[in-house]
What does this fold into?
Amino acid sequence: MTDQLYDPSLGLQALAHVEDLAALEDWRVAYLGRKSELMQAFGALGQVAADKRRETGQLLNEAKRQLEQAYEARKDAMSRAALTAQLERERVDVTLPGRPLPRGHAHPITQVIQQISDLFRSMGFQIIEGPEVEWEHYNFTMLGIPADHPARDETDTFWLTDKMLLRTHTSPVQVRSLLHVGQPPIRVLVPGRVYRNEATDASHEAVFFQMEGLMVDDRTTMSDMMGMLSYMARGVFGQERKTRFGCDQGFPFVEPGAQMSIDCGVCQGAGCRVCSYSGWLEILGCGMVHPDVLRGVNIDPDRYTGWAFGLGVERIAMLKHGIDDIRLFQGNDLRFLRQVG
Ligand code: FA5
It folds into this structure.
């Protein structure tokens, strides 16, 4: 060998038949590895006649360069082919039908708020919100409930300081919105959370939602209120439902005060456990805004009249969906929430 010229063409021909990466590695070991003929020829250079050593070295280097270049080119081509094959294998078929995304829905409380808001918006009401941390002044005093009034005891209050509390109802927003607007006309609907320091049971929560409605205008009357509330109740519960108004003396900020009931959907008015065998279910308190409340916000009660109502959102949702425990709404149990879609 030492006197012969090393011929790389054998290796180059063999490379042409290499088909996969394993065979390519075998080829590299055979033609460029430590024990390959080429490397042995390099090792034997010392034995080459001194006058030919330089030339032989150059020829061996040239042969090595050719083999290495051919090896790199083949390796490149093979990895490109492998990538193309992989891309082909993993190609996304855009014509396949998509995987359906599970569709959620609003919480039943939100649904009732949205539905009632839509109904009142269609009658020209503006939807507004008020603060949940409230002054005693707005929550009680301005509504005709001074410190010694028995109505304060009816709702156990979460006091934050001796003047500040978590609002026990949405009615303080009546006063706030009248002060804000200044003079009638005003039509507002106020959804929001309220807080009462009371033990919870199937129909009572300590944190629940109310919606307050207020209209003050030149000569709006009790029958406007009854008409609009009946329209709302039929929109929520169905056109065939009947409504009934009864007297209620319990709210100092309305005069006269009333409560509205709908006929019981469980027994269709015949009387059952759900409606305490009366055939009717009370859904809200309402009445004509007391003249003193109007005076308190500088509105002349001889010129303007107003009416207001406050309903419990959970109670409406319970009646609408036949739910028998108010605590389910805040239980975060998806099995319940999925049913009330
Ligand atoms: C009031 O809160 C008055 N502010 C309503 C009002 C507004 C009257 C404007 C007149 C004019 P009451 O305490 O009855 O009223 O509560 C109103 C509604 O909230 C009730 O009809 C009931 O549906 C709901 N509610 C009351 N307490 C709870 C409770 N602990 N858990 C869930 N819902 C309740």
User: Anything to note?
Assistant: The mean pLDDT is 92. The chain has two domains: 2-89, 108-340. The first strand starts at residue 126 and ends at 127. Residues 2-89 form one domain.
